[in-house]
Design brief:
The protein is of the alpha/beta class. The protein has a single domain, classed as Rossmann fold, CATH 3.40.50. It is about 30% helix and about 20% strand. The strands form 2 sheets. It has a 5-stranded parallel β-sheet with strand order 1-7-6-2-3, with helices on both faces. Strands 4-5 form a two-stranded antiparallel ribbon. Strand 2, helix 3 and strand 3 form a beta-alpha-beta unit. Helix 1 packs across helix 2 and helix 2 packs parallel to helix 3. It is globular.
């Protein structure tokens, strides 16, 4: 983002499932797939963490690796975005962020460098909306590469906006050095 820092709020650390399944990781996967009651519980916790979000904040969500056209399906991140907008009097824009192509998931790449290369030039903005504050939501942040690629595009479109990233979980620093 050109040297700008962006606050990141997350609810907890997690260890990727491949390091050994645990209850938290399994619950996060159930959220990703929209399975109850996990989806509702994570949304409740997210709303509690974001209750002081400024009115009128524009809310966008990260796209899954296999998505290009958001808004066609209703994902658990869409449910989270809608609930945040409703409770915090924000504006959820599920189709504003797009991807030029489907990307390889991080788990199938063997380095952060490969992930950076994979995401170069992939994201774009699909239209214009005035925004002073933008909240980018994601379910899990592993290395931050996806978030950084999206924020680069958002910063170019809204250079004076204030950005905030929210995720349910962030990879434990003990796992990724």
């Amino acid at each position: 983002m050109g040297g700008r820092t962006c606050p990141h709020i997350y609810l907890c650390y997690y260890f990727p499932v491949e390091t050994g399944p645990d209850a938290l990781s399994r619950s996060l996967i159930r959220f990703k797939y929209g399975i109850s009651p996990d989806t509702g519980i994570w949304i409740e916790c997210a709303l509690a963490a974001l209750k002081r979000l400024p009115r009128g904040t524009m809310i966008l969500r990260a796209l899954h690796h296999d998505e290009r056209d958001p808004g066609i399906e209703c994902t658990s991140l869409d449910a989270l975005g809608r609930e945040i907008a409703l409770v915090c009097d924000g504006i959820y824009c599920p189709t504003l962020l797009g991807k030029r192509q489907v990307t390889v998931p991080f788990r199938d790449l063997h380095s952060k460098r490969l992930r950076v290369d994979e995401l170069k030039g992939v994201y774009y903005i699909r239209g214009t909306v005035a925004a002073d504050r933008i909240l980018l939501i994601d379910d899990i942040v592993t290395t931050g590469t996806t978030v950084a690629a999206i924020l680069k595009v958002l910063n170019a479109a809204w250079p004076k906006a204030k950005f905030l990233v929210f995720s349910l979980a962030k990879a434990s620093p003990k796992r990724f050095h």
